[in-house]
Amino acid sequence: MPNILHIETSTSVCSAAISSDGVVQCHFESFDGPSHASLLGAYVKELMTFARDKEIKVDAVAVSSGPGSYTGLRIGVSEAKGLCFGLGVPLIAVPTLELLACATMFRTYYDEDVLYCPMIDARRMEVYAAVYDNALNTVAPVGAHVIDEHSFADLLATRRIVFSGNGATKCKEVIRHENAIFVDDIVPLATDMLALAERAFREGKFEDVAYFEPFYLKEFIATTPKNKVL
Question: Rounded to the nearest 5 degrees, what angle is found at the Cα of 55, between the Cα atoms of 49 and 59?
Fold first, then answer.
């Protein structure tokens, strides 16, 4: 299996990790707020020192690609690109909502019929969300949604949906359907990126290091009608 350095900066949490043979070998995390600019470089330096000491050759760099914080993603992607150029390795983009769905599956257990709806918080009652099945097949694509009591009603009428991520917290008091399940304290972390990053590596799904740009929240805000409701 490949040795991959993982970077996750899409929310206020900053994290980085290095994996080898499908196992996290070393990782760093901070939940103390948006301090990515001061922390990420230090984390990466420590990880590269660890890799050299353990004679681990980095085969690729994976970075969370959004949607997420403009500043956080910019810092994370810039660091990832610099590493790819310096090490001569490919860049892997890991969609943040897929990452959140994976993290939710790792920390909970429900029957195979449930759906997963990871949410990234935005302003007011807006979230950026997608819906996946148990195999991470897309049921509803990534989009910006204004949440009200009718949100996801069609899906909730027939399926249980597990909502997670920092956008789900404010939706608890609005989406009150009996099939709605809310899981707290799920955040995107570098240590949860392994499965998605390794799959992309096996399939040769790499990004153009020179031109890759993440999926900033502002792109949704600029193109989504204010009254859009799912």
Answer: 85
What is the rounded radius of gyration, in angstroms, for the C-alpha atoms of the chain?
18
Over the stretch 93-150, which tens digit does the pLDDT of each residue have?
Answer: 999 999 999 999 999 988 889 999 999 998 788 999 999 999 999 999 999 999 999 9
CA 15 to chain centre: 11
Inter-CA distances, 72 with 7, 82, 94, 178, Å: 11, 16, 15, 35
HSE-up of 130 (CA within 13 Å, CB side)?
18
Distance of alpha carbon 91 from alpha carbon 77, whole angstroms? 10
Q: Quote the tokens at residue 70.
A: 């403009």
Whole-model pTM?
A: 0.92
- d(C-alpha 133, C-alpha 138), whole Å: 7
Q: Which of 72, 56, 101 is nearest to 193 (CA)?
A: 101
DSSP letters of the chain? ---EEEEE-SSS-EEEEEEETTEEEEEEEE-SSS-HHHHHHHHHHHHHHHHHHTTPPP-EEEEE--SB-HHHHHHHHHHHHHHHHHHT--EEEE-HHHHHHHHHHHH----TT-EEEEEEE-STTEEEEEEE-TT--EEEEEEEEE--TTTTHHHHTTS-EEEESTTTGGGTTT---TTEEE--S----GGG-HHHHHHHHHHT--B-TTT----BHHHHHHHS-TT---
Other Cβ atoms within 10 Å of 3 Cβ, number:
18
Tokens representing 193 are 């990126």
